[in-house]
Design the sequence.
């Protein structure tokens, strides 16, 4: 950044100083990003980007004005603050109005500048990819994929005295391999904080191994199959369940977590095995922001809760539904403790479980999936989701993978799957493939489902 | 025609372009362009006629994309200074150099005429960002309150999104373009809750998102008062409707639902970048591979599909794309046969297709332009039948209105859709709504089963603000026109049975 550019802390302090609203919250997010994308063993797009978002939230008589503008100097900032105030003065009082969160434990070194990434983060990954592409020609293999690293620093300041800062690194590599005739396709992906733990050669070897599994092709019809859902699949299904875990909607009788006759299903045994579904900002390797920072209310979140400390939250404990997402105002109405979305998700059986190789070895006949795709809600009442298997459905016979199977469209509810699963494997970090654009921090087990509903065959490869 | 936004044109656009392009020339770039964007957004949500959120946002920045030694380089920033423009060129060259080891295809671009000092503004009357916030909230609240007051409606969800997009583009060959477009989408959903049984049903308005301004909310292009007046009864009918019996049915599909099937099974399948594999690891590929051009029987002979970036009020409509290519209209499927793709300049050159169809788009200055969807539309038959006449030809079938759930595989074969409303047709007449239905098919079977398309009187333009593609993910707005159409023998599922209940 050049010297003329305002520091994030300066934006926060100046905006709070000139605000004439009853209360004010300022969120500055500085983001840098680098990415490489490739297809058919060659680069397609790339980039190094820098951006900044400045949101000023004004609170006037319980009404809210939330405005975001480009800010390059103090005049821009003054215009932004006044636009935010004007919006609040023109709005009706908000339902979720509450006193702002008071300062508690400090979070992050407030005076530090934003953390940054650059294209050089790929200085080892790019040559390794180049080498893999070179070797692919002879191996009758096409590689496709994406590597991305982002660094986002959030500064939150409020008129109640909060000054909170957090650096969020996020990265991922996705590698898709196809045979030269494109008839078979497999995938692997990892989430990472800094790329130091990314081993391109290992990813390439995993892809090659899975392509080899497909040398025998088996056509299977639709039906219900014993199925091993690996961590990426479980993550995509559980993330969807997490997103509809809003307490108010459930209280109003409008979600899968609403109880017949009124109220919610909190306290109900959802899972057949005593698993925990939880979020925790301090989860090792999946660390995420320890405070809430949002520009608007909606979907279980209140703008009045900005700065609310986030801690470990068990959504499901011992298989029993424990917590639904509840902002402070609704917690007050429903006589419960407030909670908020945390940007990671872990499903595990605290007693541990077998790894994938042992799960395969213990399977007489069943399917092993790789990832799920195009997951959409069919019926919110039971959270029935539809979607496709993608990049590898494998047949297991007598404890061994014996071939590759066609893809399927499935219709299943993650809530129902929890009640029908017969085995939970050990949990490990995974990349939810469908929701990887929004949600990269997850640790999930492999689940054994005795009767997964493959509704129809997809000819896609 | 509305004027270009003065705040945008006041930015030092030409100085930035001169600085960036001069530097790019010095560094030996074969191609370079500077793009400056300002995207204003408003997003409002109401719950039970109370405003839950109203956010007014702006994204502003500049980006340099260049080709250096045959490799792309892209860099984006947010400071509107000459120094920053020069820094971005240097950074883009650095990105190209880091990327060179993974690049094996030399980048070259299809030719396009030079457009010096071109401007373009979309067709709208009232800039939504010029309407006072209280006026907008009052109109939305009034519509929600009316719905909330109706019998059988327990909850109402509503939202409004409005976007004003300004783009400036300048390249080494001398093209300089300044553009502006506006779009808007309101949405209203009524909810009925059965507390005792623990169930609920919803019914959403089927109005399309459009390339119009605030006038859309007050009677131009859609009658919201009329549609909202009908919604409670439609919801009540649905709550009492019988569950569908799974099986084969003939379908008459209204454009408010058919647009999404067109989007998924034709729009995406005929994007050339997907057919070539550029999206293989993410959005997916296409069964309509390049070797099938001019031979693939996509559907029945009544199928005529066009791509365009020119239709008035279309969401993908623009004067020039993000590579400086002027908007066009062309055939994608003619007489049921695949005859065209959506392209950008690099792909058009690569596959020797002549001129680009002008489909490069970036959703912000921070993202690189990629090939995005044109308005892909199914054309009506010149003297074609009305919707009622199509229904009259069906002995046992369903009339399908309004999109809801959607999903299609990564090669665009197998899809499954639900709808706001499925009406049972018996002996050429509508009997009433049924519930729990979904239709499932394979793309070419489905379009092959299209017996008739309706006439121009049945044609409507629908679409979405939220078409997702590329990594990093980008969203693009796109419209799809369609007449009502008749399909024979399509598989209908019962979703309750699918859930194993």
Sequence:
């Amino acid at each position: 950044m050049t010297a003329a550019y305002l520091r994030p802390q300066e934006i926060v302090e100046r905006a709070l100083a000139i605000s004439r609203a009853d209360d004010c919250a300022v969120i500055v997010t500085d983001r840098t990003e680098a990415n490489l994308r490739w297809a058919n063993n060659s680069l397609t797009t790339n980039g190094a980007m820098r951006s900044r978002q400045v949101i000023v939230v004004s609170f006037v008589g319980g009404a809210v004005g939330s405005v975001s503008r480009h800010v390059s100097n103090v005049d821009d900032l003054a215009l932004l603050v006044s636009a935010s105030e004007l919006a609040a003065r023109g709005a009706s009082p908000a339902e979720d109005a509450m006193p702002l969160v008071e300062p508690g434990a400090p979070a992050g070194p407030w005076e530090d500048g934003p953390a940054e990434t650059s294209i050089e983060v790929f200085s080892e990954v790019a040559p390794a990819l180049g080498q893999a592409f070179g070797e692919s020609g002879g191996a009758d293999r096409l590689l496709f994929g994406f590597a991305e690293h982002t660094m986002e620093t959030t500064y939150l300041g409020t008129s109640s005295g909060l000054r909170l800062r957090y650096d969020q690194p996020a990265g991922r590599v996705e590698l898709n391999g196809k045979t030269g005739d494109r008839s078979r396709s497999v995938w692997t992906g990892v989430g990472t904080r800094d790329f130091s733990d990314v081993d391109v050669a290992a990813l390439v070897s995993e892809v090659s191994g899975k392509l080899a599994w497909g040398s025998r092709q088996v056509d299977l019809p639709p039906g219900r199959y014993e199925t091993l859902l690996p961590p990426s699949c479980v993550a995509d299904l559980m993330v969807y369940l997490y997103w509809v875990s809003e307490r108010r909607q459930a209280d109003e009788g409008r979600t899968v977590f609403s109880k017949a006759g009124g109220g919610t299903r909190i306290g109900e045994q959802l899972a057949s095995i005593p698993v925990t579904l939880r979020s925790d900002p301090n989860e090792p390797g999946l660390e995420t922001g320890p405070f809430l920072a949002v520009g608007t209310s909606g979907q279980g979140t209140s703008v009045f809760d900005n700065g609310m400390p986030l801690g470990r939250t068990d959504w499901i404990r011992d298989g029993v539904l424990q917590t639904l997402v509840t902002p402070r105002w609704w917690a007050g109405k429903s006589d419960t403790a407030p909670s908020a979305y945390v940007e990671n998700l872990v499903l595990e059986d605290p007693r541990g479980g077998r790894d994938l190789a042992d799960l395969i070895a213990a399977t007489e006949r069943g399917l092993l999936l790789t990832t799920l795709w195009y997951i959409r809600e069919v019926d919110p009442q039971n959270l029935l989701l539809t979607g496709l298997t993608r990049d590898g459905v494998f047949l297991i016979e007598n404890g061994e993978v014996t071939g590759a199977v066609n893809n399927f469209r499935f219709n299943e509810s993650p809530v129902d799957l929890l009640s029908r699963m017969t085995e939970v494997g050990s949990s490990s970090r995974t990349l939810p493939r469908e929701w990887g654009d929004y949600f990269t921090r997850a640790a999930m087990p492999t689940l054994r489902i005795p009767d997964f509903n493959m509704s129809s065959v997809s000819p896609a490869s | 025609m509305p004027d270009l936004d003065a705040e945008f044109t006041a930015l030092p656009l030409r100085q930035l372009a001169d600085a960036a392009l001069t530097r790019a020339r010095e560094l030996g770039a074969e191609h370079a362009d500077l793009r400056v964007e300002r995207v204003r957004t408003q997003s409002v949500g109401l719950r039970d006629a109370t405003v839950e959120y109203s956010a007014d946002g702006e994204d502003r920045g500049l980006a340099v994309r260049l080709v250096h030694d045959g490799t792309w380089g892209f860099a984006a920033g947010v400071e509107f200074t000459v120094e920053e423009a020069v820094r971005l060129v240097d950074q883009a060259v650095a990105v190209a150099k880091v990327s060179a080891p993974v690049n094996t295809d030399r980048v070259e671009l299809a030719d396009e005429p030079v457009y010096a000092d071109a401007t373009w503004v979309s067709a709208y009357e009232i800039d939504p960002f010029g309407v006072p916030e209280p006026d907008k909230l009052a109109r939305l609240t009034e519509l929600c309150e009316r719905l909330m007051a109706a019998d059988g409606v327990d909850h109402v969800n509503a939202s409004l999104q409005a976007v004003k997009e300004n783009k400036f583009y300048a390249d080494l060959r001398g093209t300089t373009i300044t553009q502006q477009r506006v779009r808007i989408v309101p949405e209203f959903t009524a909810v009925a809750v059965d507390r005792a049984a623990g169930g609920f049903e919803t019914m959403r308005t089927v109005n399309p998102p459009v390339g119009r301004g605030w006038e859309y909310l007050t009677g131009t292009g859609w009658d919201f008062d009329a549609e909202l007046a009908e919604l409670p009864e439609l919801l009540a009918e649905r709550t009492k409707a019988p569950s569908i019996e799974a099986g084969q049915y003939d379908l008459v599909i209204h454009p408010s639902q058919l647009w999404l099937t067109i989007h998924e099974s034709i729009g995406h399948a005929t994007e050339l970048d997907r057919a070539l594999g550029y999206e293989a690891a993410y959005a997916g590929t296409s069964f309509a591979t390049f070797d099938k051009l001019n031979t693939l029987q996509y559907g029945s002979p009544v199928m005529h599909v066009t791509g365009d970036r020119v239709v008035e009020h279309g969401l993908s409509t623009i004067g020039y794309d993000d590579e400086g290519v002027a908007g066009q209209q062309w055939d994608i499927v003619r007489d049921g046969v695949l005859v065209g793709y959506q392209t950008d300049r690099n792909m058009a050159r690569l596959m020797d297709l002549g001129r680009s169809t002008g489909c490069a788009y970036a959703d912000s200055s921070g993202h690189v332009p990629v090939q995005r969807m044109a308005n892909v539309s199914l054309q009506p038959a010149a003297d074609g039948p009305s919707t009622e006449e199509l229904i009259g030809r069906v002995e046992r079938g369903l009339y399908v209105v309004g999109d809801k759930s959607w999903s299609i595989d990564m090669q665009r074969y197998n899809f499954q859709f639900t709808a706001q409303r499925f009406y049972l047709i018996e002996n050429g007449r509508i009997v009433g709504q049924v519930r729990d239905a979904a239709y499932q098919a394979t793309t070419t079977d489905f379009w092959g089963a299209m017996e008739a398309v309706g006439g121009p009187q049945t044609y409507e333009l629908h679409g979405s603000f939220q078409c997702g593609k590329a990594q990093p993910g980008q969203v693009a707005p796109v419209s799809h026109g369609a007449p009502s159409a008749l399909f024979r023998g399509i598989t209908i599922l019962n979703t309750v049975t699918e859930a194993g209940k």
